[in-house]
Specification:
Blueprint (H helix, E strand, L loop, with lengths): L5 H4 L17 E2 L11 H10 L13 H11 L6 E4 L2 H12 L5 E6 L4 H8 L3 E6 L17 E5 L11 H10 L3 E5 L13 H4 L3 E6 L12 E4 L2 H10 L7 H12 L1 H24 L3 E2 L6 E5 L3 H13 L2 E2 L11 E5 L3 H14 L1
Parallel strand pairs: 1-11, 3-4, 3-5, 5-6, 6-7
Antiparallel strand pairs: 2-8, 7-8, 9-10, 10-12
Helix pairs in contact: 2-9, 3-9, 4-5, 4-8, 10-12
The chain binds pyridoxal-5'-phosphate.
């Protein structure tokens, strides 16, 4: 097309997991949403906010939410930036800290959206291989990258590097280390403390998974004040709508609900792991709200994926080297997990 830039014409868009249409009855274990509804207090706050007040713009500074998040995580509001999902935060990071022709890096496998974003911004991409058998993050050959993305816990494999090993990675890099902690609420540790220990770390969080709010679109960045200040100049001034600002700060304040929800997910994760072992499969230990399970062959994994799909059970299959012999299963309710295991057993 004659109007489009070459790097966009060549771009393959990010492929989100299948989203069923409204009313379709499926067991949805493919995009790591929370199987439980958000806190009733959150739903009430959304009903309250859906009022005449919507004719006014939202708070351009998202003050309330930033203050709530600051209290919760032990930082100041100036160290927090909110986004329309953590995906938007990732975009803001690229717009703030890179220009065309710069280089960025990330691990493979991990979240494939980093590469898509890098291509959109006409950057050079430097993938570094990583595996679940490593104790610490492998150091990229080239430390001169504007940004390096670490998904921790890893998706789709579920392992998580300990903070002191991530610190070595941060010290190795000459640019910014982004630790994408989309799944950190399900893990035994996180890297928030690194913000105080090293100058070049940005942490991203999302309310999509552990707070059951994927449809609301709320993400956070935490970093030193001087970094947040630069990112803040780049975002759209009304990037957080009124409803998301209100509901997200209520969600973060309902820690009792959050904690119960989290514990239920972790118990079901144990059950799913055992169930997969009983079927003589090879599930990887997980620090997230999903389990990656390997099959004897890629043929077997693809066949099981198709068989489950036919029964309305959605899981994630990655048609790429190193992942194509496995499936990523989100943690559902106990009932969904039992139904999944029964269907899997029948297929095997
Ligand atoms: C889900 C996910 C995101 C996106 O989160 P949103 O807040 O829903 O945009 C980012 N990174 C990773 C690793 C994820 O799994």
């Amino acid at each position: 097309m004659r109007f489009v830039k070459e790097h966009i014409e060549k771009l393959t868009a990010y492929q989100p997991g299948l989203q069923p249409r409204e009313g379709e009855r499926v067991i949805k274990l493919n995009t790591n949403e929370n199987p439980y509804p958000p806190s009733p207090w959150v739903l009430e706050s959304i009903r309250d906010e859906a009022s005449e007040a919507l004719r006014y713009y939202s708070d351009p500074q998202t003050r309330r939410l930033r203050e709530t998040a600051a209290d919760l995580y032990g930082f100041s509001p100036e160290q927090i930036l909110c986004g329309n999902g953590s995906d938007e935060i990732l975009g803001i990071l690229l717009r703030t800290f890179t220009t065309r022709g710069d280089s960025i890096g990330y691990y493979v496998p991990s979240y494939s959206y980093y590469a898509t974003l890098g291509t959109i911004h006409a950057l050079h991409l430097h993938p570094t291989p990583v595996s679940d058998r490593q104790e610490q993050p492998p150091l990229p050959h080239n430390p001169n990258l504007a940004l390096f993305f670490l998904t921790n816990p890893n998706s789709p494999l579920g392992f998580s590097f300990r903070p002191h090993t991530v610190m070595k990675l941060a010290e190795h890099m000459n640019g910014i280390l982004v630790v994408d902690e989309a799944y950190a609420d399900f893990a035994r540790w996180n890297c928030l403390s690194l913000i105080r220990e090293v100058p070049n770390v940005v942490i991203t969080r999302t309310l999509s998974k552990s707070y059951s709010l994927a449809g609301l679109r709320v993400g956070l960045a935490l970093a030193r004040e001087e970094m947040i200040r630069q990112m803040d100049k780049v975002r759209d001034h009304y990037n957080m709508n009124r409803i998301a600002q209100k509901a997200a700060s209520v969600a973060l304040r309902d820690q009792k609900f959050f904690e119960e929800n989290r514990k239920r997910v972790l118990r079901t994760r144990d059950r799913l792991f055992e169930g997969l072992r009983e079927l003589r499969l090879d599930p990887l230990p997980s620090e997230a709200n999903f389990i990656f399970v390997r099959f004897p062959s890629s043929q077997a994994a693809a066949t099981v994926y198709a068989g489950l799909l036919q029964q309305g059970i959605l899981v994630r299959y990655f048609d790429q080297q190193g992942l194509d012999n496995g499936l990523r299963i989100s943690i559902g309710t106990n009932r969904e997990t039992e139904r999944f295991l029964a269907a899997l057993q029948a297929l095997l």
